[in-house]
# Entry
Amino acid sequence: MDDHSVDILKLKESMLSEDTYSDLSLLFKMFADPTRLRIFSALSTSTMKVEDLTEVLDMTQSAISHQLASLRKMNLVRTEKVGRNVFYSLSDDHVMQIFKQALEHVEE
# Structure
């Protein structure tokens, strides 16, 4: 077996599972929508209610709520209920790191 064949075998063995690639694809789809990106940007500064997001983004409550539901499903945002209010925040620092790195790449 030549060196190239050995390299190909090592590469094949190091590839991720199809499920992992599928999960990554779904994650990147969440970043593929301008409204969701605007939500990430707003939530990077503070925890907000849907009403706050509608004002900041100048969008309807229905449109914001729809996007937040998708983001919650993918564990990109989390909620905290305080009395009758539900506050949204980014799930963790990874979300903002992905956003910031993509932004840096676009701005180069």
User: Anything to note?
Assistant: The helical segments are 3-14, 18-30, 34-43, 50-57, 61-73, 93-107. The first strand starts at residue 48 and ends at 49. The beta strands are 48-49, 77-82, 85-90.
